[in-house]
Amino acid sequence: MNNNTPELVLKKLKQDASNKVQETLDAIYQVCVEQAKHGLYDFSIATISRLGKNRGVPKAQSIRNKSGEKYRALIQCFSDNRGPKLKVNRKESWIDEIDNPKHRLLTQMLAAELASTKHKLNEIVPPETVINVFDHNEPIDEYSKLTQVERRALNYILSDSFKNKWHLSETEYGELVDENGKALFKPATIDAIKKALRYL
C-alpha cells in the first residue's frame, strides 16, 4: 500500500499545524486535485499558486520560503503521484500568460490532450520512423511498383480464364464467389486489384 498518497500526506502535514496552515494546505490540496482531474499534471509551484490565488493559496515566493516547507511537500507529493507522467510542456509557458482563467484552463487541457496523443502515437510509431504515403499525383518509388511477374499474377486473377477454371463469378460488391455462392475473395477484392494495377 502506498503510504505517500496525497490524502495521507495532507493528513500528516496538518498534524500539529496552526489553523491557518491547515486551511492553506486544504486550499493547495483542492487545486492539485482539480489539476489531476482535468488531466493537467503540471504541479509546479508557480502554477498551483496562480490557480489558487483567490482561494487561499499563498504566492509562489511564499511557498518557496522556509515557512512554506509543508506546502512544497504537499505539491511535490502530487507531482510524484501524477498519473500518466504527462505534463504541459514548459515550452508552452505562453499558456500562463492567458488572462482569462477559463480560456487558460481550456488551453491547458488541449495542450495536455495533445501531449497525450503524441505519446500514444510514439508508442505505435517510434520516433524517426519514415512512413511513405502515396497518391496517384505523386511519383512512386521504383521499389514500390509492381514487378512484371506480380502484375501478370494480378491480371490473371481478373481474367476470364481464372474465373472459368475455378468456376468463379464476380459480384457487384467486388468479390469472387464459387458456383455455390460462397465468397472466396472478400468484397472489394477486385477493386483493390484494379487500383494496384493502375497506380503501381
Entry summary:
With 200 residues, the protein is mostly helical.
General description of the model:
- The protein has 200 residues and is mostly helical.
- It has two domains: 6-124, no CATH class; 142-199, no CATH class.
- 52% of the residues lie in helices and 4% in strands.
- It contains nine helices and three strands; from the N terminus they run H-H-H-H-H-H-H-H-E-E-E-H.
- It has helices spanning 6-14, 19-37, 45-51, 60-64, 69-80, 101-124, 148-158, 160-165, 189-199; strands at 169-170, 176-177, 183-185.
- Strands 1-2-3 form a three-stranded antiparallel β-sheet, with no helix packed on it.
- Strand 1 and strand 2 (176-177) form a beta hairpin.
- Helix 1 runs antiparallel to helix 5 (69-80), helix 2 runs parallel beside helix 5 and helix 7 (148-158) runs antiparallel to helix 9.
- The longest helix is centred in the middle third of the chain and has 24 residues, at 101-124.
- It is rod-shaped, with a radius of gyration of 31 Å.
- It starts with 5 loop residues before the first helix and ends with a helix.
- Mean pLDDT is 78; it is low at 84-88.
